[in-house]
Amino acid sequence: MRDFVRRIESATPADRDRAVDGLRAIAILGVVLGHWLVTALVVDSGTVHGASPLQYMARFTPISWLLQTLAVFFLVGGQVGAKSYASARARGESYGRWLRTRMTRLLRPVVVVLVVWAVTASVMLASGTDQGTVRALCKLVWSPLWFLVVFAALTAATPLVAGLHPLWPFAVVLITDLHRFGLDAPGGFAAVNVVAGWLVPYCLGAAWARGDLRSRRTGWTLLLGGAAATTGLVLWAGYPAAMVGVPGLEISNLDPPTLAVVTFGLAQCGAALLLLGPLRRVLRRPAVWAAVATVNLSAMTIFLWHQSAVIAVTATALSAAGPLPGLHTVPDTTGWVLARLAWLPVFALALLICRSAFRGYEQGRPRKNGMVVREGRSERLAAARRT
């Protein structure tokens, strides 16, 4: 382990801002833990269907405030994308080549998970598995992919949006919500918020890459202003308090993104900017940095397979021992939450197995000189990755 840590440390360029990777790791792990805690697979009369503890126990809503970290991921994506594109232009690299480089690592592992689950679903149906069960499992695996579609679209549009002020997409979200809720109009065109809502933190990330968000005053303004706006929207404008979708609620803050989730994202971006200094200090420690670098090297694999890990544990436990608390029962008691917490290490172990099996599709073949290209810079992390 000490040898692995030393190799990661020596493979890291001296000018790398480790705090950016730290924020990305926080965002990915937040999404994973959030899904593991607020989604459940309930076995009812031989059929599996999805449920959420937030549907039955609103007192656990603050979990969604801590673990819904998508705005941080888009903030980092905007910063890295804008910086990467600027570096590519400086090297004389074409837009097409730059985009192919970024899309390859994003889309290659997606194809793998789609193929694996298409085959799995076909085998399950052919073996007589209930269609409702197959639909519930596939939805659990495939529904998070909307995020990657949006992220890919914003990445492709980086040359157009890198200089866009975040107030413009924020205004689009505001007008859309006024039309949907203030005028009680049909919400069909509200789908524009899927792009506009996440374009706000993405544009903030691009501004960060330009050096426009350096002052702590900016971070505090985003944090306090976003928190105050979100509180007001929840208390007086009727927006849901949960920052994730909850079955049974008429309005979801995520589908499509509402003004409340955008202001909440602004608060998260402010907190992320304020964390940069502490993160840089902590990540000077080689062991901590090695852990963060490892998560970043497998970020897509972790994101794509974390729900499959839950399904594997759930199915194995059901076949071996029957319905168990925290896995197969209705998530309507504190006991279920405590049982689910006890299952988290098992989910993590299953995810590690998935990572070992599929990480090669994300990282690709190492180059002969032991280097890989990520985020527009050459890094010697491939040597440590082969351990």
Can you give keywords for this protein?
single chain; 387 residues; mainly alpha; two-stranded antiparallel ribbon; 4 strands; 70% helix
Describe this structure in words.
- With 387 residues, the chain is mainly alpha-helical.
- It has one domain.
- The chain has helices at 2-11, 18-38, 53-56, 62-67, 70-90, 95-126, 131-142, 145-156, 158-161, 167-182, 192-209, 216-236, 259-282, 286-297, 299-321, 334-363, 381-385; strands at residues 40-44, 47-51, 372-374, 377-379.
- The chain has a two-stranded antiparallel ribbon.
- It starts with a helix and ends with a helix.
- Residues 367-387 have low confidence and may be disordered.
What order do the strands of the largest sheet run in, or round the barrel if closed? Answer: 1-2
Q: Specify the biggest β-sheet.
A: 2 strands, antiparallel
Tell me the total number of β-strands.
Answer: 4
**Count of the domains:** 1
Mean pLDDT: 88
Helical residue percent band = over 70%
How are helices and strands ordered from N to C?
Answer: HHEEHHHHHHHHHHHHHHEEH
Task: Set down the secondary structure blueprint.
Blueprint: H1 2-11, H2 18-38, E1 40-44, E2 47-51, H3 53-56, H4 62-67, H5 70-90, H6 95-126, H7 131-142, H8 145-156, H9 158-161, H10 167-182, H11 192-209, H12 216-236, H13 259-282, H14 286-297, H15 299-321, H16 334-363, E3 372-374, E4 377-379, H17 381-385
Antiparallel strand pairs: 1-2, 3-4
